[in-house]
Amino acid sequence: MASAGLRDELNCSICLHLYTDPVTLPCDHNFCQSCIQRVIDTQDRAKRYSCPECREEFQQHPALRKNRKLSNIVESFLSVKPDEDKSEIFCSYCVTSSVPAIKTCLHCEASLCDQHVSVHSKLDNHILIEPSACVESMKCSVHCEPLKYFCSEDDICVCVSCCLVGQHKGHNVELLRETAEKKKGNLKNVQNKLNLNRGEVEKNVQSLKEGLMNLHEKANSETKRFTALISNITEQQRTLEKQIMNEIFRQEDQLALKFVSQIQQMEKKKDELSKKINKIEVLCNIADPLTVLRKLKSDQDAFCDDEDGENKREEETKVKNEEGDDDKDIDDLDENLMSVTLLTGLAHIVSGVKRDVYGQEATDLLLDVQTAGNYVILSNERKTASSSEKDQRRPKTSRRFQDYNQVLSSRSFSSEKYYWEVKGSDSGHWEVGVAYPSITRQGDESSMGENDKSWCLRKGNEKYSAIHDSSLTVLHERPSSLNIIISLDYKAGRLSFYELGDPIRHLHTFTATFTEPLHAAFSIWKNGSVRIVS
């Protein structure tokens, strides 16, 4: 009793277990450090703090003081308690010394050592059990006789008197050992089922661990791949920048030479004109008219040439202004060439990125008129399919879809990684995806996605859906750009759909083990249409 009372005093009032790292609040009440810390963390939100035991409130976050004395008391209690709990049973007849008992007699209510068991009564009513200090629990509470049977009707252990004259008279009873063996058998069955369940759980855990490991490996691989891809893009950008800069410098040097040459010619012309101007000034300063006329006559050819040349230049300028100067851009950089170089280079980089991300572009993708349903109109270039209310009256063949407005591509894919871009109509309904050539061409199962031979993305009623083998998944993304990239990795068994909006959105990915070549597949109805952009 004293031990129980001490234990109660050493219990935390929050967790009701012995104190662990006890701390004291300002009100002198003690708690486990982790217990009171959780309470204070909860009170932090309201900034109102109080003791869980006495409800005393504190103005600020209470300081927690370690109670080392209480901690030592708990440790001492735990170290002493196991010895106290060791209630070894001793022989009731060995009064001179404490000899451990090996059996307890329910009839005698005495415990026996090895020597006293050998001389103990062998009568049936002297039932021996494992050493026990609580013999009363082994006896009937009504008749004070040993419990020998089990009443299955009342699910209780009973004595002989209970079965013969007591309230269990006439009930279905059996020996305790037999009942115990049956229940052990039932427990074994339960254990076997639990073992099977545990085995399944272990398999699931292992599968999840492998999935997690694969996820980490995939993330690491993708990180390396895209790091290399971005590095490659950066390097191509630098190369393109260097190419454009070199072109600018080349044009600059080329035009600079022309400018220098023209400047030199103009400087030479300027010197000649300066000399003639000086001669004219000298003539104009001569006072003697005879001298002026004589000198003018001797230099007449030079002055006439200048006058004729000036008139000629004025005439040429007039003609050029009327006809247009073919060399008017000779003194400027060719900006168009640099722009074309930039755009071509960027397009090349983008094509390379698309090839690395989506695969090789299927540029030669055409619609196969031999598979087109009779209510499908194909464009002349076999790139666009539209639904029609008019029967096209194409000949019936084993390859043509009979009951649905569908068409396949003439090209198939059976290896590597490819992508193609399509644009769906804003109105109507349409489906894009892939299908095996063995897809049924007639009946309900010939509809795209309603069989195990086709995978597609469906657009209708302002929403996207992914469908395969009649299993439909409604996607939350609402259609925006209607430009769809379809990426097929045949070997990896992945078919992905991306919407080319701002930003690009991943819509859905199918995973499968492909067993036949795959054709691009299209289905249109209710005035829908699809165009192959690639």
How is the topology of this model organized?
Elements: H1 2-9, E1 22-24, E2 30-32, H2 33-43, E3 49-50, E4 57-58, E5 65-66, H3 68-85, E6 103-105, E7 110-112, H4 114-118, E8 128-129, E9 149-151, E10 156-158, H5 160-164, E11 173-175, H6 176-285, H7 289-298, H8 300-323, H9 335-357, E12 360-361, E13 376-378, E14 384-387, E15 406-413, E16 417-424, E17 429-435, E18 454-460, E19 463-468, E20 471-474, E21 483-489, E22 494-499, E23 505-511, E24 518-525, E25 529-532
Parallel strand pairs: 12-16
Antiparallel strand pairs: 1-2, 1-5, 3-4, 6-7, 6-8, 9-10, 9-11, 13-14, 14-25, 15-24, 16-21, 16-25, 17-18, 17-24, 18-19, 19-20, 21-22, 22-23
Content-based structural category? alpha+beta
Give the number of helices.
9
CATH fold name of the domain at 360-532, please? Jelly Rolls
The amount of beta strand, in percent, is 15-25%
> What's the story with the biggest beta sheet?
8 strands, mixed
Distance between the termini: 89 Å
Shape: elongated
CATH superfamily of the domain at 360-532: SPRY domain
Task: Kindly report the average pLDDT value.
Answer: 86
Helix content: 40-55%
User: Could you say what the CATH architecture of the domain at 360-532 is?
Assistant: Sandwich
Rg calc: 51 Å
Q: Work out the number of β strands.
A: 25
Q: What's the CATH first level of the domain at 360-532?
A: Mainly Beta
Low-confidence stretches: 82-86, 323-329
Description:
With 534 residues, the protein is α+β, with helices and mostly antiparallel strands. Strands 12, 13, 14, 16, 21, 22, 23 and 25 form an eight-stranded mixed beta sheet that branches. Strands 15-24-17-18-19-20 form a six-stranded antiparallel beta sheet, with no helix packed on it. Strand 6 and strand 7 form a beta hairpin. Helix 6 packs antiparallel against helix 9.
